[in-house]
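Render this sequence as a predicted structure.
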Amino acid sequence: MKTVFFDVQPYEKNFLEKATEKNFEAIFINSPLDENFEISKNITDAEILSIFITSTLSENVLKKFPKLKFILTRSVGFSHIDMKYCKEREIYAFNTPHYGDYTVAEYTFAILLHTTRKIEKAQNDVKSGEITMDKYTGVELFNKTLGVIGAGSIGKNVLDIAKGFRMNTLAYDIYQSGDYNYCTLDELFKNSDIISINAPLTKENYHLINKETISKMKDGVIIVNVARGEIIDTESLYDALLNKKVAYAALDVIECEEILCTENQKCRGLENIKEACLEKFYINQKLLKLPNVTITPHTAYNTKEAIERILYMTEENLLSCLNFNPKTGAKNLILL
């Protein structure tokens, strides 16, 4: 089966070449696939596309692959795929669930502590020989209330880790399971000192964090987002940081995060930024300059162990495509 891999990193290629050498005609492309990518004729007959979150498979993109049968995203989330179109065309999509349940939860605290304890500032001052202790005064986690939005596999691990810091915890999720202190969203906003977003992006939670919901939060609240950037309205967050309603923001994801891309040269040109993202581009640049904000390039997943799990599940998903039966489905199949 002809398979085209996009977003391919050097550490992935050797593994994927071995996984496809017997039953697949594989092509490897290091760039993401989106509407700016110039699709050559030699890949339009692909039956399988394998992508990462940096690709965006809109209807316009998918229409260019008339023989497409399967999409394998090397991620848990699939908001970057037009699943409605896939359902209409009977294109089956697979993801790699649970590969980063602990990985991303650990990073939640890594980016939180990095921001609130002003680690980067302290390190840079040590290097420059200009140490001023009062510049590094932060806040501790002990006895603070952590509210987790999205108590799935990752969110539950965040809540469990919080116990090690002797924090109080609140949890919000549509589906409640386990012995966690569940509450309504309004209760979480009102009572949390720190809010961690660990939910997948859906139509229902787009811009969940906005001017109105931020107004319900404690003064000096800390917001951590390692989920999807579009869950937070960027402009509302920026305004709240300026007026000190939000004391710190620790963000591994931002709206229109493709504008931060450095590996795909096309994404750096203004002419390739979607019109809706131009305003976000401007505000994100201003966010980057704030001393109480940390922004990292969607790297919470990025550990040796997690990458190995992604690759092994991708191999598993490739094998599922060979003998796929739509009536019985397969492991890791995204239900449409």
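Summary. Residues 262-266 have pLDDT under 50 and may be disordered. The radius of gyration is 21 Å.
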